[in-house]
Amino acid sequence: MVARQGNRLATTGCLISLTALIAILGIVASWLWYRHWHDDNSNSERQKKETVALLEQARAISDDTARALDTSQATDVDTLTGVIWQHSATPVISYSAARHEFTATAARSAQYDAEGILPGSGAGRLTRCFVFTYTHRPGPAWAPRVSVQDDDQCRPSTQIAGRVHMALTRISSMNTMDLTRAGIQNGLDPTGRRSFDVKNIVRNRDAVTISVLVSSSQAAVDQCYRLTRPLHGDDSRSSPTAVPTSSC
Fold first, then answer.
1. pTM of the entire predicted model
2. Most exposed of 88, 149, 163, 164 (fewest Cβ within 10 Å)?
C-alpha cells in the first residue's frame, strides 16, 4: 500500500516536471521564433534603407560625372574615359561610337549593423550592381542614366578592379631594371593565366607608362589600363597609378 502510494507520488512528480519542462521549452522556442522574426524584419528594413542610400549615391555620381563631361568639352574617347574614371571610379568603361554612349559598370557596397540573437552579431554587408550610361545628345550636353542590374553583371568589373589593384602592388615593388615589357608581363602574370597582357611600355627619365589589357575570368570582359610607375626620388618604388583607357 505504501509502495503503491509512493509510485503514484513519483508518477505525479514526473508528470509535473515533464509539464514544466515542456512549458519552459515552449517559452524558449517562442522567444527564439520571435527574435528570428524581429531580427529578420529589422535587418530587412536596414537593407532597404541602405539600398535607397546606395541608389541616391549612384545617382549623385552619375549627375556629377555628366556635369564634368559637359565642362570638359573634350571630344576624344580617351580623355572622356578619364573624366568618367575620375568622377565615378568605375573599373570597366566602354564606348559605343554608334550610339555616342559610354557605359560604366561598378558594384557599390554598404555596411549596416545586423541584428542577431547573440550580442555583437556583426555588421551586415549590402552590395548592388550599377550600370552608368552617358549619352551624347545633339549639342554639348551628356545625358546620364543609372540602373541597378543583377550582381552577375558586375562580377567581371569587380574582378578587373581587384586585378588592377594587384597590378599596382606588384609594379610598385619591382626593381627598376625589371621594368621592361617582358619583366612586367612576368611580374603581373607569372602563371600565364592571361589575366594581364602588356601591350606597350614607354619609359623616360621620370616614369614608366605601361599599356596593359586586364581581363576577367574566361576573358568575359577586357579593359585597357594605363599604369604609371614613378622612377624619381623616393617615389621610385611607390605610388603607381592606374587609369582605364579606350584602347591599348
1. 0.76
2. 149
What is the DSSP code string of the chain? -HHHHHHHHHHHHHHHHHHHHHHHHHHHHHHHHHHHHHHHHHHHHHHHHHHHHHHHHHHHHHHHHHHHHHHH---SHHHHHHHHHHHH--SEEEEETTTTEEEEEEEEEEEEE---SSTT--EEEEEEEEEEEEEE-SSS-EEEEEEEE-HHHHHHHHHHHHHHHHHHHHHHTS-GGG-SHHHHHHHH-TT---SEEEEEEEE-SSEEEEEEEEE-GGGSSEEEEEEEEE-SGGGGGS--EEEEES--
Q: What is the pLDDT of residues 1-35, one digit of tens each?
A: 544 544 454 556 566 666 766 767 667 666 566 55
Q: What are 168's three cell numbers?
A: 599596382
| CA-to-CA separations, 121 to 48, 83, 113, in angstroms, rounded | 19, 41, 8
The torsion angles phi and psi of 121, rounded to 5 degrees, stand at -65, -15
Residue 101 near residue 135 (C-beta atoms within 8 A): yes
Alpha-carbon gap, residue 50 to 42, rounded angstroms? 12
Q: How many CB atoms lie within 10 A of CB 18?
A: 10
